[in-house]
Write a structure and sequence with these properties.
Its main location: cytoplasm. InterPro entries: EF-G-like_DII, EFG_III/V, G_TR_CS, P-loop_NTPase, PrfC, RF3_C, RF3_dom_3_sf, Small_GTP-bd. It is found in: Cytoplasm. By secondary structure, the protein is α+β, with helices and mostly antiparallel strands. The chain folds into three domains: 195 residues, Rossmann fold; 84 residues, Rossmann fold (3-Layer(aba) Sandwich), CATH 3.40.50; 137 residues, 2-Layer Sandwich (Alpha-Beta Plaits), CATH 3.30.70. Helix content is 25%, strand content 30%. The chain has twelve helices and 31 strands. The strands form seven sheets. Strands 26-23-25-24-28-29-27-30 form an eight-stranded antiparallel sheet. Helix 3 packs across helix 4.
Length: 507
């Protein structure tokens, strides 16, 4: 059975309340038993899903984590995504592994740049979106303005499923359109809810507003939602636990079960008997005591059983998966079985990489997990030249995870790292020091971007003869043109029409 799986992500701009909402969803699902377990007291402590040293220092989510919990017979796989704008690449890969997403919007700020960026990634893959307008107990934009902003900015039909009765200082609760009940603040702290039938008639402007909200927007259409054309909108406060129950109920009722995944041979259905899956993330050193390395695999089809042998597409020979892991952030437990939609962690020592397909017969290749051309390139300067070997190992590990890309120039000894955002460079230096005991600095590189070369062996060879000073190899040994500018790329494309200068590379 796969129909009781819901694999979803939460996307938002930093500070919109994603960590708090994650905590409350886990609380509702019984995965934690006390509010504050995810976000411990004190500014230095972060969410359970924020475990890396630099995350604790900066107070942001840098890596993607997985949290699995059950509620009312439904298994929820919640994939936490990096909230920082620099982490589009890791976030993109995480969003390839989900079937739906919750978009969290701050009621005072509306659609922010990172929200829009992440939404576009979801749209690329037709990932359906449920919208949660957070912090309605504080002063915010007028509700109709917020809905118009979502509709206009994202070109998406909106269908409100609840409505805030007042906002900020005059906030009285949230009206659920489905049940005609109001969640009201109670007690001196206004943090405890009493849900009851609306025992007062809404009057005046508020009654008109609710009537207009009920009838002025499209009715919820599950097919339009699942096609990515319509978003149901819920209002609430993650901090005060308003609207969270309705949100998790909506995921259970409306969000799609595991969807077919794209492969070279066409979509692979979750009902296929053969066990198949793909690695969308690799994380080294989650447990610093054991120097471990975990590949996160999204199950696409079949029923996985512990001890099964699967063939990674990058290796070609089977590996036995003896210790598959289910996650609650850093906490883990062994998974005896897993179904389509589940995320399992596979411990390995460099065997598995991002983009690898795992299957029983090695006849399937999943597509759509690219590397992106880096926007920032830097030379790596080692402070202790005797640690060259450790540095290469570290760079290879981190490039396998997708934290960086690493390029080995044909000429010159200094290796070059490429990233899509500045923060990744800080992560690189922090992790080199903390996990590999390698002290290094970064210097300016003569190159501005990189392009993967594709073409006939003759065309590539001819190009290499004239451009060796601008060539490097990536960690797979594939040729890469290191360009000094965007003009440089265009010029070489014109001169070499038989060669493709790729801004992405799929594995």
């Amino acid at each position: 059975m796969t129909s009781n799986r819901r694999t979803f992500a939460i996307i938002s701009h930093p500070d919109a309340g994603k960590t708090t909402l994650t905590e409350k969803l886990l609380l509702q699902g019984g995965a934690i038993h006390l509010a504050g377990e995810v976000k411990a007291r004190g500014a230095a402590r972060r969410a359970r899903s924020d475990w890396m040293k630099i995350e604790q220092q900066r107070g942001i989510s840098v890596t993607s984590s997985v949290m699995t919990f059950e509620r009312d017979g439904v298994t929820f796989n919640l994939l936490d995504t990096p909230g920082h704008e620099d982490f589009s690449e890791d976030t993109y890969r995480t969003l390839t592994a989900v079937d739906s997403a919750i978009m969290v919007i701050d009621a005072a700020k509306g659609i922010e740049p990172q929200t829009r960026k992440l939404f576009e990634v979801c749209r690329l893959r037709s990932v359906p979106i449920i919208t949660f307008v957070n912090k309605v107990d504080r002063e915010g934009k007028p509700v109709f303005d917020l809905l118009d902003e979502v509709a206009d900015t994202l070109a998406l039909d909106v269908s409100p499923q609840s409505w805030p009765i007042g906002m900020g200082g005059v906030f009285e609760g949230v009206l659920d359109f489905g049940t005609d009940t109001i969640s009201r603040p109670e007690g001196p702290s206004k943090e405890f809810l009493g849900k009851r039938e609306a025992d007062v008639e809404l009057a005046g402007p508020m009654a008109e507003e609710v009537e207009l909200a009920r009838h002025g927007y499209p009715e919820f259409d599950i097919e339009a939602y699942r096609h990515g054309d319509l978003t149901p909108v819920y209002f609430g406060s993650a901090l005060k636990n308003f609207g969270v129950t309705e949100l998790i109920d909506a995921i259970a009722r409306f969000a799609p079960p595991p969807r077919p995944q794209p492969s070279e041979a066409g979509p692979i259905e979750p009902t296929r008997d053969e066990v198949t899956g793909f690695v969308f993330k690799v994380q080294a050193n989650m447990d610093p005591q054991h120097r471990d390395r975990i590949a996160f695999m999204r199950m696409v089809s079949g029923t996985f059983k512990r001890g099964m042998k699967l063939i990674p597409s990058g290796l070609g020979k089977p590996i036995a998966v003896h210790s598959p892991i289910l996650f609650f952030a850093q906490d883990r437990e062994l998974a005896d079985t897993a179904e389509a939609g589940d995320i399992i962690g596979i411990p390995n020592h460099g065997t598995l990489r991002v983009g690898d397909t795992l299957s029983e017969k090695n006849q399937v290749r999943f597509t759509g997990l690219p590397n992106f051309a880096p926007e920032i390139l830097r030379r790596v300067q080692l402070k202790d030249p005797t640690k060259t070997k450790q540095l290469r190992k570290a760079l290879d590990d981190l490039s396998e995870e997708g934290v960086i890309q690493v390029f080995y120039p044909e000429f010159g000894g200094q290796w070059i790292v490429g990233v899509v955002g500045q923060l990744q460079l800080d992560v690189l230096i922090s992790r080199l020091s903390a996990e590999y005991k390698v002290e290094a600095s970064l210097e300016a590189s003569p190159f501005a971007t990189a392009r993967w070369l594709k073409g006939s062996p003759e065309a590539i060879k001819g190009f290499e003869e004239f451009n060796r000073a601008n060539l490097a190899r990536d960690r797979d040994g594939d040729p890469v043109f290191m360009a000094k500018s965007a003009w440089d790329v265009g010029y070489q494309q014109e001169k070499n029409p038989d060669i493709t200068f790729g801004a992405t590379k799929e594995r």
